[in-house]
Amino acid sequence: MAVVGEKEIERIRGAHGAQAVRGLWEPEVFATQFNEVHSIEPVADCVLVEATFHGEGAGSGIKLDQRGFHLWRIRDGRAIEFRYFLDRDEATHAAEG
Asked: What is the pTM of this model?
């Protein structure tokens, strides 16, 4: 179980699940948002993306800039798992483990 905002959700599966989760926080939380991609590299059977999320709170106007690592596990040309890390070493260890 995961918590997004004030809502609890079960494990997410597939493209429809990812779209549903995204809908839990847009546009209510962020007035604007985008990811600035710094690097994309293969690690084991994954793709590691280093990116900075930039957003502005819809109600507060507070700006958020969060650098992190998106880890996508790939099988048969499709993403089967996504995990987010603040630390590159943790992301790399998860990919190799």
From this structure: 0.70
